[in-house]
Amino acid sequence: MRIGELAERAGTTTRALRYYEQLGLLPARRAGNGYRAYDEGDLRLLREIRMLQDFGFGLEETRPFVECLRAGHPEGDSCPASLEVYRRKLGELDECIARLQDVRAQVAGQFDRAVRARDELAAVQEPPVCELVKE
Amino acid sequence: MRIGELAERAGTTTRALRYYEQLGLLPARRAGNGYRAYDEGDLRLLREIRMLQDFGFGLEETRPFVECLRAGHPEGDSCPASLEVYRRKLGELDECIARLQDVRAQVAGQFDRAVRARDELAAVQEPPVCELVKE
DNA sequence: GCTGGCGTTGACGCCGGGGGGAAGGTTTAC
DNA sequence: GTAAACCTTCCCCCCGGCGTCAACGCCAGC
User: Fold this and answer.
1) Which bases of strand C have any atom within 7 Å of the beta carbon of a protein residue?
2) pLDDT for B33 beyond 60
3) Which stretches of B71-79 are DSSP H helices?
């Protein structure tokens, strides 16, 4: 399988594959004409990379999973190093979520305060129109 | 007030202030010798920028607040444009938090599955040691 | 033999928010 | 007088994950 086909089957681009090879993440054998040659195993590795990327893992964080698969394990997360990455990532996610929730609360507080200030100012400058509304 | 003093009073760097000026976010008057000259109002603007930055606002998102203050309003969020930025930001935060929680659940699922698979494999390869433990 | 569609390498661009440092002018304190 | 501490502009660097050329090679069909 050549680079274009692999890219298409994995839903990515040839540029990304060359980049992964440059990182040593997904090295390719070479055909006689210099073209990169991939097999089904590489497709498996690439799918693992893509799945983890969708989870927000950096490429370096996918390396233990890829190497685990290449070492012959049935799953990319069959190795302790992969589990450690999971643990670290869960911690980071929790921390990130907590921080965002805190920020959200603060921004919501600012927003509410600003809206109340605006409404009070409007009430002062523009007196109630109850009489007109009643008509 | 010169740039170094303003930077120190606002808890930032001269580098950042020159960058803000380059963006047109915080323009400075010039003294006779070409040095940037700031006043207390600029400090107020800068504090507004810094607060919003701490909330994770991009510099461009702080612009409505800064211009609102410069237009003479009492608060940076006294203007409709600022409120709109608040609303947009709250939406982005909610979306981001929801996505992260979804990812967290998926990663936790993967982690649990991998741990169970490992434990089952260990149980098969290494038989229980109940007898020894009892002694 | 020529066109078109693959492939190759290499290098630069981009996004945001500045950091770092050079080369030079100014101001201030001792 | 001179050294330290400012200030100015200018330009390159960083992070990740590629996109986007440029200039070339390989191969199939007509």
Assistant:
1) 6-9, 16-20, 26-27
2) yes
3) none
